[in-house]
Design brief:
- The chain is built from no helices and 23 strands.
- The strands form seven sheets. Strands 1-2-3-4 form a four-stranded antiparallel β-sheet, with no helix packed on it. A four-stranded antiparallel β-sheet has the order 9-10-11-12, with no helix packed on it.
- With about 300 residues, it is mainly beta.
- The protein has a domain of about 210 residues.
């Protein structure tokens, strides 16, 4: 539809508890959260089951919101905010009981992330214009403390400067720029945020992740251009495709860019994964997108 598939997230879960990996999806055009059941046999049919229709969604991320040890579904909804948990239940429809948890609407809009921002060991939800603090009683408190503009999905929570608190890393999904937002406190203890540029040479960093690509014990920032994120209409939409990783020197607070690919067919689509595909002890990259599906084998080991 309009140059897109109705397929904006592919989150692997054993949804129904039958031992086979299913897929949870959240999409823009059909406005739906749905899951696809793995039949468990090569000639079986993959059935699609509707969960909810909360509105247009950029994608969804998997994160354990309530701390029960199981990842939940956090979609990036444009006009609302919510997260979903599921449990296998033979008495429920299709053998799965889904529960929707509404969040304050302030977290709606382009860009979402999750992580512990205030050090209380509870997962907070980050939106483009602020963050939702998860309170001890399960309620949520909105803090409208920043405006990230066209924020990536996910917005990463990471202690960039090593001072013990959560900073934010994000890209401008439909423009130029990758940035990090430093969390600090002023003289009266109020939380303040300072923006720092990581790179501004290329556009459409729609998806970001952290991974230790060189086995040095430190995570690198991995991202790249989402090919035709808006079908060529974004600034730089027809610039060369690229995938990069960035190493941080915490002492100097400087990022160094390393090229994985530039000017070739691969790009960095939604749900790119960093995983040891070949089991050789280093992290490889699986990059899907409109230009194709690509495996980058890490030759470290």
């Amino acid at each position: 539809m309009d140059g897109y598939y109705v397929d904006f997230a592919n989150l692997p879960f054993d949804v129904d508890g039958d031992g086979w990996v299913d897929i949870v999806n959240a999409a823009w055009h059909n406005k739906s959260v749905f899951w696809i059941r793995n039949p468990g046999k090569p000639d079986g049919t993959f059935e699609v089951f509707h969960v909810d229709e909360p509105g247009n969604m950029e994608t969804a991320i998997a994160v354990d919101i309530n701390g029960d040890g199981q990842n939940d579904i956090l979609p990036n909804i444009m006009t609302a905010a919510a997260w979903y948990e599921f449990k296998p239940d033979a008495a429920a429809e299709h053998g799965v009981r889904w529960t929707k948890h509404d969040l304050p609407v302030e977290a709606a809009g382009h860009g979402i992330g999750a992580g512990d921002l205030n050090g209380d060991s509870r997962v907070d939800v980050i939106g483009a214009k602020g963050w939702l603090e998860q309170m001890a009683d399960g309620q949520w408190q909105w803090h409208g403390e920043f405006d990230l503009v066209d924020a990536s999905i996910p917005i990463l929570v990471h202690d960039v400067d090593g001072d013990g608190d959560g900073d934010l890393i994000w890209g401008m999904s439909h423009n130029y720029g990758v940035y990090w937002l430093e969390q600090e406190s002023n003289s009266i203890g109020q939380r303040i945020w300072t923006r720092h540029e990581i790179d501004h040479d290329w556009s459409q960093p729609h998806f970001l992740l952290l991974a230790d690509l060189d086995n040095d014990g430190q995570q690198e920032l991995l991202t790249g251009k989402r090919y035709y994120a808006h079908n060529g209409h974004d600034p730089g939409g027809n610039d060369p495709r690229c995938i990069y990783y960035y190493k941080l020197d915490k002492a100097k607070r400087q990022w160094t860019r390393f090229t994985i690919t530039h000017g070739e067919q691969p790009a960095f689509g939604i749900n790119t994964q960093a995983v040891d595909i070949d089991g050789d002890g280093d992290i490889d990259i699986v990059a899907p997108g409109k230009s194709g599906l690509f495996l980058f084998e890490n030759l470290l080991n």
